[in-house]
Design a protein that fits this description.
homodimer, 339 residues, alpha/beta, Aspartate Aminotransferase, domain 1, 2 domains, four-stranded antiparallel β-sheet
Chain lengths: 339, 339
């Protein structure tokens, strides 16, 4: 068991240190859409009965059509975190043609990949370039677009990496958790032809329903069957399946429009405060600043939580503000920062 | 990967074979309370944000007070199924003082225990008597009260079994999934003194919220820490934590009263039809009848689903009917069965 990672979302802990009621804080510490659409109707049986097959199947078909995964029906999972935890077991399992114990994680990125593999006894190489991935790596993780710096890798590059991994008997995991705002980046439509590819999609970030704990895995049938077997029956809640079945079939262009509008608002505030934007996606913005630690503390004193990084003390990640009033609140707090 | 187990709750499959709309079927195939209390208010942030620590802590405190586990704060898990899947790993893990590969499951019982251990390569002894458990068993599973036959083991007997398992370096798992209707049977208040005991509790069955996917594990701190680590952050959904925080603090005597009333109604119908009740709990009733297979099919033709058992072709398990009208519907269907 390695030490837990401090993620965004820890408003309770922040309020305990800096005061204020958690509900009064402005939480910019995650990459979750702060403007969710209205909660769809949830039928009573989704709450009260075990999630029945038709609820699962309907969510899978809606996910297939939304993500464009062709003949692959994405597997609903209780948050992509749940399948990140299963990746070491997938390598250990004899039926996947990988036998060594070295994995590559294109880094810096979401910390739970390295943690899951290190916990399971694997050697994890944090590589910053795809060229550093060799035949000794039985599995490679690429988050695309990457969190927190927003780096993106073109489809052709990732397909070539897949083919290289496959030739050596390895697997490529592409985490598209922040992929919904730029669907052209997704490998989902190529997945049926890429047998050693596993794609993870997050439902909660784009739709603004992170509390649901829902993600999807897209991969060849025997890999999805293994995940399903390991997660066991009824892994995903009825309300989550029901909401996914509704929202994945809805017109998402208003959601994209709203996210883009909020992202533009955030950028204007950050630039207005003289901060240098060094990366990000539509759902979050990365700032590089030598005073990052002080800005973080200053914002906490104004009951605004952003995300800092142990491994990159110059970085701060800002999630989207929910509305122009929050933009002004952030802007005013930043103006008061002693330069 | 062993073959999946056919559980109750498969209304979609039953309707595909026997016709009718799934919503029009009477589903008596599970042991879930069919009369749930009203859905409590769920704050918006439970849906939209990552489940924050205070939501988790509040659910844990409510579970501690409800289950009476003293100094142990029960760990919320996304359905007890999720931790059943982790039990083999707990034995494999070097930090638990168990090193052999033989487990005992008091049987017949909920099939996912044997499946999880067999999938992980363990030898599973299905024992029908606690006396058959020996020092060769590194872990024993007892479901109390047992599903589907309703057998119960007194607290003293299970404490003695725990002490015996512990003396040999083994673990005792007591699954109290159906324990809420008879709290006097629970080992929860003894758990702080029983270091090699793991208790599983189900939230959804008694409260009638099986779609939520929520259970609790009660055990010593390092075992719960390991489960928490393996499940990863945010394993349980925000709505589930929020609802648990409300309902576990509510007065549950009306729920028990309603379940008892429904159980009496079901018993009257089954006895009126001349069926022999051979076991059960307040949430389900087991019938033993040489014609069980024919009765099952007959009831399916009337769009009533009960639970049959591959390993006991004479058994049928009837879940509670939701109301007297459903009692009458079941009674009339049974009256039409050709004797």
């Amino acid at each position: 068991m390695s030490a837990p990672i401090v993620h965004g979302g820890g408003i309770t802990a922040a309020a305990a240190s800096f005061g204020g009621r958690p509900d009064d804080w402005l939480d910019l510490s995650t990459g979750i859409n702060p403007c969710p659409v209205a909660l769809p109707d949830i039928p009573a049986r989704a709450w009260h009965r075990l999630p029945d097959r038709h609820l699962v199947d309907e969510a899978r078909r809606a996910a297939r059509d939304h993500y464009g995964s062709g003949e692959i029906l994405p597997l609903p999972v209780p948050g992509t975190q749940s399948v990140i935890q299963l990746l070491p077991r997938l390598i250990e399992d004899g039926r996947i043609a990988v036998t060594d114990e070295r994995v590559a994680v294109v880094s810096p990125t979401y910390g739970e990949y390295a943690r899951a593999f290190a916990s399971a006894g694997f050697a994890v190489d944090a590589v910053d370039d795809l060229a550093a991935i060799g035949s000794e790596h039985r599995l490679t993780v690429v988050v695309n677009p990457n969190n927190p710096d927003g780096r993106v890798w073109p489809t052709d590059t990732l397909i070539a990496l897949h083919d290289r991994m496959k030739a050596a008997g390895g697997l490529l995991v592409v985490d598209e958790a922040f992929g919904d705002t730029d669907p052209a980046l997704s490998l989902a439509s190529h997945a049926p032809q890429l047998s050693n590819l596993i794609i993870f999609r997050s439902f909660g970030k784009f739709f603004g329903f992170a509390g649901l704990r829902l993600g999807f895995a897209i991969a060849r049938g025997d890999i999805l069957a293994r995940f399903e077997d390991w997660l066991g029956p009824w892994a995903v809640s009825g309300p989550a399946l029901s909401i996914a079945g509704s929202l994945l079939r809805s017109d998402v262009s208003p959601i994209r429009g709203r996210i883009d509008e909020r992202s533009a608002g955030l950028h204007a505030v950050l630039k207005g405060a003289g901060l240098q934007i060094s990366g990000g996606t539509a759902l979050f913005t990365l700032v590089a600043d030598a005073r990052a630690g002080d800005i973080y503390t200053h914002l906490c004193r104004h009951h605004i939580l952003v995300r800092k990084f142990d491994y990159a003390p110059d970085w701060l990640r800002f999630g989207l503000t929910p509305d122009p009033a929050a933009d002004r609140r952030l802007g005013e707090a930043l103006q008061r920062f002693e330069r």
